[in-house]
Write a structure and sequence with these properties.
mainly alpha
Amino acid sequence: IKEFQTVISNFPHSDFVNEARIGLGWIYLKEKRFADAVIIYDNLVQNTKPGELQNQSKYLLGISLKNSGHPERGDITLEELATVAPESQFTDNALYELGLGHFDRENYQGAYQNFAKVTKSYPNSDIFDQALKMSGECLLELERFSDAETVYAKLISKSSNSELVVESQYRLGWSQYKSGNRNAAKITFQNFIDANPKHKLVDLALYW
């Protein structure tokens, strides 16, 4: 913190001063000093030109606001980023965070729309698999079980994240069960149990 503060205080015209502000704000986020992070990132948003530095600041401002007890303002900030800068490297993460907010508030349709934007518009995103999984979770809550089956089958076939694949195998069986495809569900659950005998979800798979 002291190093960043020294750069900001003593070298206000340095080419690296804004990077120092970004770094200082990030430390505040890590230390859960969210109000301090809000001040840093809001200042950056207001005083930088349109571009990736401002986009990054806007994304981190949204996260800081959501964690400082201002979820509505945080969502507005993230939505503005997604609308104004759809090509930004931070927009996929902004959409994902918006989706999580809607999901936590049990607005599953709104959450699904944001997660689906990530999977449709940002296929190379590093959070693609997580967004796809959350899309499936929303579809289950919306009782769109056949669509959920499709999502989990896609995740199983494409993801390199082993834990996500394992969880999706169980979720696929649950989607099949809820859609009335009991024979397919039985096979899927058995395959899940055979491949992951010590997994925390095995007892539920055995039950269903």
